[in-house]
Amino acid sequence: MEITAPATGITRGYAANASDEKALKAAGVKTIYRGDKGETLGKFKMRKGEALGVPRGYPTFGTARSDWTKAEEMVHSWGAFIVDIPTGLRSDRNGARMFANALSPPRPTETYKAMQAASVEARTEGRMSWRRAEKIWFNGKLKLAEKVELIGIPQATLYNHFGKTTVPKDSGKK
């Protein structure tokens, strides 16, 4: 997750790798412990009330739930707490939310909409839903040929499914 604003009040951070370290530096964290270099939670200790900033929430500590709970228990045993820098969530106040985010990370709304559209497209194979076709079929502003073209279903099928369009005929004469 991208960190856009500097983290205020967080002087120490924990990074699992180099990319996490870059994210913490961008957030303004001064002291950074790297898990891949052996600077794990047991190798250093924090003071009471101190915040340990992480760039990806609990997954920074490992891939398993047990890694997350061990890290949280250790940090809390010192009287300190974990801060997920991108969201601002604290483990002492929002531990359940941080755990939920670790299990299924939140995605931007645009991503969800794109995924939903792709899912619908895959299931319908480009066909229009009957509900949407019905709205077009009973639209009084469109001519019959325009409706058939927009819906993409043969005219006879539309008449069989919906019946008359309830739109007055346009003879084309004026």
Question: What does this 3D model show about the protein?
Answer:
This protein starts with 11 loop residues before the first strand and ends in a 12-residue tail after the last helix. It has helices spanning 18-26, 65-77, 91-103, 109-124, 130-137, 144-151, 155-162; strands at 12-15, 31-34, 51-54, 81-84, 89-90. It folds into 2 domains: 12-103, Resolvase, N-terminal catalytic domain (Rossmann fold), CATH 3.40.50; 109-162, no CATH class. It has a 5-stranded mixed beta sheet with strand order 2-1-3-4-5, with helices on both faces. It contains 7 helices and 5 strands. 43% of the residues lie in helices and 10% in strands. With 174 residues, the chain is α/β, with parallel strands linked by helices. The model has no long low-confidence stretch (mean pLDDT 87).
